[in-house]
Amino acid sequence: MSYITHEHCQRALQKMKQFHDDLDNLYKSHGLSMLDNTGRRNILLSAAQEEFFAQELAKSYKGVENNGRTGEPDIMIGELSRELECKITTPSSKGAIQLQTDYATLNKKGELDYLYVIADRNFDKFVVLHYDGLTCDDFRTPSAGSRGKAHMARHIAA
């Protein structure tokens, strides 16, 4: 059973949605469109995902920390001795969903938990996937041009 509950997800996603809407309005006020490039949008929402999920998890567990610096866990749950890697993605225009990781980090740490938030283009609909204890065996070896990003082998990861 996952240590991340439906309630954690609902509350964190509500905060992420509000943050997204605030950013979208800021972009619009400067004549920009945040929805033209969902990859860039997701980069902006990455820190919010880590912060808001950490806030919600801290309501249930002791020693929850959110750091996000290179080499540090996105979220550390001290009470459970678990590192949680947070990722946000949006389906491509053809509907493909890429669940990726930094292969070198995973290889170094050996095993990590993952929290993938899949958001639609308009940031109105979400799927949250929590994987416990993934290893390099759950991901394909990164291709030459991937900048070290490895795609999950979904038929293997459980």
Description:
The chain is an alpha+beta fold and 158 residues long. It has three helices and seven strands, in the order H-H-E-E-E-E-H-E-E-E. The protein has helices at 6-29, 38-58, 103-109; strands at residues 64-66, 75-77, 82-89, 100-102, 112-119, 126-134, 149-151. It has a five-stranded mixed beta sheet with strand order 1-2-3-5-6. It has a two-stranded antiparallel ribbon with strand order 4-7.
Number of strands: 7
What is the strand arrangement across the widest sheet?
Answer: 1-2-3-5-6
Distance between the termini: 13 Å
- What shape does the CA trace take? globular
Largest sheet geometry: 5 strands, mixed
Order of helices and strands: HHEEEEHEEE
Oligomer: single chain
Mean pLDDT across all amino acids: 91
SS-based structural class? alpha+beta
Task: Give the tags.
158 residues, two-stranded antiparallel sheet, alpha+beta
Task: Describe the structure concisely.
By secondary structure, the protein is an alpha+beta fold. The protein is built from three helices and seven strands, in the order ααββββαβββ. A five-stranded mixed sheet has the order 1-2-3-5-6. The chain has a two-stranded antiparallel sheet with strand order 4-7.
SSE layout and pairing:
Layout: H1 6-29, H2 38-58, E1 64-66, E2 75-77, E3 82-89, E4 100-102, H3 103-109, E5 112-119, E6 126-134, E7 149-151
Parallel strand pairs: 3-5
Antiparallel strand pairs: 1-2, 2-3, 4-7, 5-6
Helix pairs in contact: 1-2
